[in-house]
Amino acid sequence: MVQRELTSVDYLVMLRRRWVLIAVLAVIGPPLAYGVSRLLPNKYKSQTMVIIEQPTVSKKIVESLDSTDINQRLASMQQQILSRSRLEPIIRQFNLYPEDLNRISMDELVVRLQKRIDVTPIMPMSETRAQELPGFYIAVTLGDARQAQGVCTAITSMFIEQNLRLRQEHSETTTQFLAQELASAKASLDEQDAKLAAFKSHHTGELPDDEQTNLNLLTGLTSQLDASTQALARAQQDKSFNESLLTQQVAAWQASQTGRNPDTLEQQLIALQAHLVTLQSSYTDDYPDVVKAKNDIAILQKRIAESEGPNNSPVTNKGPKMSTEPTQIQQLRAQAHTDDLIIASKTKEQEQIRKQIALYQERVQSSPAVEQQYKELTRGYQTALDSYNELQKKRDDSEMAVNLERKQEGEQFVVLDPANLPDKPSFPNRPLFALGGFGGGLGLGFAIAFFLEMKDSSFKTERDVEFALHLPVLAMVPEIIPPSPKEQRLTANRNSADPGLEVGARA
């Protein structure tokens, strides 16, 4: 027989035929599941909640050095704490699995305990704080309630201590690293500072800041050179005039040793007057040389007047000859010597000024090249100084962060709910087992009923006949079910009470 497509009516018919089987399995399932739960060992779950408390000091004042994500840090801590080196002492301390301690290896016991420890993060309630994990749960499930509580407390303490130690170690390691980098930066800064100081010492007066000063000094030296040149020219001119006058005075004096020579005095007077005219062309009447020249002319004129007698005839000097030069000649010689000194001084001064001018000209000419080298050294020094100052600031911030962690003022794990002592087992949940048994029995009943119906190939309805034979049904013979003994007794009693009814029934 080929199975036809079933409808909801067919399923209802099947349910009427198999409802006893389904009901029996649904009734047997809960007691059976509850009985199984009674056979399973009890497991007690102790749980604690740890919250992550933010630093008491604002992050804007002291920024934490540990910038790792809290989820990653928690996962790393979980791996470290649930390692064998941490769990083996707990197994021995709380005497866990005493029946298996000498029978199986410690590694297997550690793995078994790891499966009994569950660390679950607490999800933030708002999306804006999704990056900040508010805390986490630690749950330990064991066969003994007090052991579960003790192990949960120990694991929680490990997480708190591990968090403090990791944050402090991270801060101290960062501080040590920054201290080493700061020492290296200081050495580099000292080296740049020494180079800059040596360069300044070698190029004193040639630095960019000295360029304007050099130009001003060069201008002043040029003016000094011009003034010295003019003074030297005047000294040379005075020397020439004084030497000429000295020559005339010496000649006149020598002539006067043998007799007066008015012509010589007249010539000296003419020379002095010519010299006076020259001086007056350059200087005023108050100038010392002009005054001196006028005095010399007056003295010479007096001498000429004295040399002439009352008869306008020259007077011969028959007296003894003068053995020393006159004061005027001595003064002229002294003046000539003074002129020589002035000329020598001005010449030396000119040489010194020219050397200084050459020095400052060289400084001005080399200023661009020196400026370029100075900028390179200054740039390197500034870079080293900025790096040093930045590392200094970071090191100071790191030391404050270390002090913050040492005083436990930073981010901390705080136990909000201590590990509880469970008063009833978390496994097995017997009401839940019973409910599961009911659902399992009911499902098994439906499955068996459906399987039996699919294996049954008999015709049940008119549609089955038409579907299998492809012929219409002309008539159906109803099922004749013989009366049960109870129904037969009831029928007999009714007939004995009413004989006419029996006659009618026979008819």
Summarize the structure in words.
The chain is mainly alpha-helical. Helix content is 68%, strand content 6%. Helix 5 runs antiparallel to helix 9 and helix 6 (211-256) runs antiparallel to helix 9. Residues 311-323 and 501-507 have low confidence and may be disordered.
List the helices and strands and how they pair.
Layout: H1 8-39, E1 44-53, H2 70-81, H3 84-93, H4 106-116, E2 117-122, E3 135-142, H5 145-202, H6 211-256, H7 262-282, H8 288-307, H9 327-406, E4 412-417, H10 430-455, H11 462-469, H12 485-497, H13 499-506
Antiparallel strand pairs: 1-3, 1-4, 2-3
Helix pairs in contact: 1-10, 3-4, 5-9, 6-7, 6-9, 7-8, 12-13
Class based on secondary structure composition and strand pairing: mainly alpha
Q: What is the CATH T-level topology of the domain at 210-390?
A: Helix Hairpins
Note the overall shape. rod-shaped
Number of strands: 4
Mean pLDDT: 77
CATH architectural arrangement of the domain at 210-390 = Orthogonal Bundle
Instruction: Please give the alpha-carbon distance between the first and last residues.
Output: 43 Å
Widest beta sheet: strand line-up = 2-3-1-4
Radius of gyration: 66 Å
- What pattern of helices and strands is seen along the backbone? HEHHHEEHHHHHEHHHH
Low-confidence regions: 311-323, 501-507
Strand content: 5-15%
Major sheet: 4 strands, antiparallel
What kind of oligomer do you see?
Answer: single chain
* CATH domain class name of the domain at 210-390: Mainly Alpha
Helix content: 55-70%
